[in-house]
Amino acid sequence: MNAKKTILILLVISSSLRITGQENNCNNVFDSLAWSEYVYANMHYPLIDCINQAEGETVYQATTDSVGRFDIINQICSSGSRTLDNEARRLILGTPWRERCSSNKTYNITVNFSLADNKIYSPSEVEYLPEFEGGDTELFNYIRRNLEYPPEVSEKAVSGRVICGCVIEKDGTINIVETLRSIYPPLDAEAMRVIKKMPPWKPAKISGKNVRFYYLIPILFRLE
Length: 224
Known about the structure:
Elements: H1 3-10, E1 14-21, H2 25-29, H3 32-42, H4 47-52, E2 56-64, E3 70-77, H5 82-94, E4 106-114, E5 120-121, H6 135-146, H7 151-154, E6 160-168, E7 174-181, H8 185-196, E8 204-206, E9 209-221
Parallel strand pairs: 5-9
Antiparallel strand pairs: 1-4, 2-3, 2-4, 6-7, 6-9, 8-9
């Protein structure tokens, strides 16, 4: 196992949020339990920050529009990492409760990023493995429908099996993809492209909770 993968498997991550504003209506929406559940399922800690062990706090000022949705969002304090700041912004704008906030109000939203219990699990550690919707048969069909053999490679008659590793997040999305076994750069790139555009999976579970999971996907390139 190389150094990068060791970091991916052992690192743990968490995030929290605090909101203040001119009105308290939004605080009831972003209660600690609801926000914690949302962050737990949806946060994608950036790979570069995992590797660099980056932590920090970022603060955004968000203004709601006439129907209570976050309309204008400005950063007023950085965590020190642009990628963490961008992830905080994505989480804030993506929260499903924002439409219930008071209209035409401004709120300061603080997101704290720190290393905590959010590690990437391996098969022996989980109770339920992640599953592509429809199982292995549908996964095979998805790959067969979407895989494209690069024309320049066809002329060289290159074939073989590319093995990719990816992280299936707690919301089932594919967040990190890497090539573990390469056969030819254009084919490696095509395998990664197909994996990155996959629809969400059913995530891995431990004690009923979704967890992050490192999954291996082999993709066969074969000239007919």
